[in-house]
Specification:
It comes from Flavobacterium algoritolerans. This is Glycosyltransferase family 2 protein. There is one protein chain. By secondary structure, this protein is of the alpha/beta class. The chain has helices at 17-20, 22-25, 51-60, 80-95, 113-121, 196-205, 216-222, 253-262, 270-283, and strands at residues 4-10, 30-36, 66-71, 100-103, 108-110, 135-148, 151-155, 159-165, 179-189, 245-248, 286-290, 293-297. Strand 6 and strand 7 (151-155) form a beta hairpin. The longest helix is centred in the first third of the chain and has 16 residues, at 80-95.
Amino acid sequence: MKKIHVGFLLSYDYDKLKLSIPPVYKDADRIFVAVDENLSTWSGNKFEIDPQFFDWLEKFDVDKKIEIYRDNFYVPGLTGIQMDTRERHLLSLKMGIGNWLVQVDSDEYFLNFSKYVKSLRKYDKYLDNPQNHPVQISGYHIDIYKYLDDGILYVKNTCKVLLATNYPNYKLARQSRERIIYVNSFTLHESMSRSVEELEYKLKNWSHREDVNPTFLDKWKSANKDNYKDIKDVFYLKPTQWKELGYIPTKDPIEIRNYFEKNEDMKISNFFLAKKNFGQWFKHRKIFKLNKRVLFEEYF
């Protein structure tokens, strides 16, 4: 118990796991990869997995810490987001309550997982009786919006990403609506940065397919290095969540990672984290009335 267990969902974009698993491998105690036993997406469409992927996975897993978890994750009658939430819950149960349950999507790449693990370890006390004090440990996304011929477009504002929990009572995907503890940790997120064909396939098969705003795809297709400064409000759900785009003249993963590690505009200040964490602590207190007196007790 009290291990670092990392879970991934394997689906049509499984090949991206070759980029998302290596950054967490060394510091994870165990890694679980969930795959639908019938190779169905949350839309009920079939996908195929090249056998060479499993060859790669076996060769890469030199410490024998990766486990494939097969189950029925497509349930007719449920929405995409309901199946997303259900699969994450089942995966977390497989990972084992009493450990840190870190769920990373296949298109999320940690910049420094070791740093994130050190942040988690500060809160190990919450792994004792986790159902009594559920928390989520949030890092931040740096979203790659689009790959161009000679570089990338990225979203200039970071957003939270709920990566770890001690108790997986998920309500909406990875969101449990419990107390959030924010830490200074980043993942590169390739959510929308795909080929046109790959993106259109994703929009038809992922859990948010019913909620994508109708202006998103046209903006995405038109964006380039010459007009990106003029394109605003580009998020795929509520457009204003992604306000502006930036440009980097490279597609090399190492150069991209180095750029963001040095970019002061994307830094999260200690004051900002303290303010956010105090707000969460205050929000999740419980108020008890006893003998006509009001007693305050921390939710955690």
